[in-house]
Design a protein that fits this description.
This protein is mostly beta strands and about 300 residues long. About 15% of the residues lie in helices and about 45% in strands.
Length: about 300
């Protein structure tokens, strides 16, 4: 059977200089390690006269051509390729964790791993008012539709399927209102919570809630978002401090703040208003867009994120 000759770009385009990879022989005229030229020589036998051996005593021979192809490029280009590959892997891993990680904290809409215990909504809508002690901060765990309004009088109203409302827990712990679900459910419509309060200065969200807050007016406001939720803010404050972890979205272009300090990790996106100063940091593939004309802008990007004026 004739031996198939394959061309390698490492040895050039001239047929007389090709190396026959199937036979392990060198062409006529090639000078081997013994200084001899002429007929085909057993290059593999000469090259591997004293081959390396592994821990089991087996001969280790590398006949791969990929190394030869890779070594054609400059060292700096090879290093840049490896670094880019590692960075892409790291960012992709962070994005996947952000997308699927929040269910482990929030229970994936109140009980991801307990489908057999899930309660199906009745479809009969009901509204309940919850009597709570005064609070100035709000913490949300799970998946709710929440509307926060700055009002003089405090009121918390929950609307949803009548058989699911008993499992919506709204309780005040000190100065903090905590919203969560006691059971897993499958609602016909997302549970809606209307919150009226006067002095809300802090909001924390864990999970996939959709939150809208309007009429806020405080000296400072702190926002902490974890998961894939969406938060809209409107009003005014002197200082806004925001932290986004995961794939959450913050729309605060109508929340006028003199100074903004924001940190985004993962694949989140934020839109803010900074009148005087902005301190923005991104770790991952997130974005920060800002309105206003701040005199002092500090950017700190680790990854492929974007900080840009609008």
């Amino acid at each position: 059977m004739p031996i198939r000759d394959r061309t390698s770009p490492v040895f050039g385009a001239d047929d007389s200089s090709h190396y026959n990879y199937d036979s392990g022989l060198t062409p006529r005229g090639f000078v081997n390690s013994r200084g001899r030229k002429g007929a085909y020589q057993d290059l593999a036998g000469i090259r591997n006269r004293n081959p390396a051996r592994n821990s089991k005593g087996e001969t280790c021979m590398n006949h791969s051509r990929w190394g030869a192809y890779f070594n054609v490029y400059p060292r700096w280009l090879r290093r840049a390729f490896v670094f880019s590959l590692l960075l892409f892997t790291l960012v992709g891993t962070c994005a996947i964790i952000a997308l699927v990680g929040w269910p482990f904290h929030a229970g994936v809409t109140q009980g991801f791993f307990r489908n057999t215990d899930r309660i199906r909504g009745s479809g009969i809508e009901k509204t309940e008012q919850r009597a709570l002690s005064p609070f100035t901060s709000i913490e949300v765990n799970g998946s709710f539709e929440i509307y926060i309004t700055g009002q003089k009088d405090q009121r918390v109203t929950v609307t949803g399927d009548d058989n699911l409302l008993p499992f919506v827990i709204a309780e005040a712990k000190g100065q903090r209102l905590c919203l969560r679900a006691a059971r897993s459910w499958s609602a016909r419509k997302r549970i809606k919570v209307d919150i009226e309060a006067r002095n809300i200065d802090s909001l924390s969200s864990f999970g996939a809630s959709d939150i809208s807050a309007s009429g806020l007016s405080q000296g400072s406001f702190t926002l902490d978002m974890n998961g894939s939720g969406k938060t809209r803010l409107s009003g005014k404050t002197k200082k806004l401090t925001a932290t986004l972890s995961g794939t959450g979205i913050l729309e605060a272009g109508n929340f006028h703040a003199q100074g903004v300090s924001i940190s985004v990790s993962g694949a989140g996106s934020a839109d803010v208003y900074a009148g005087e100063s902005l301190n923005a940091g991104i770790s991952g593939v997130g974005n920060v867009y800002y309105h206003g004309n701040p005199a002092h802008v500090t950017r700190n990007i680790s990854g492929v994120g974007l900080i840009q004026a609008r």
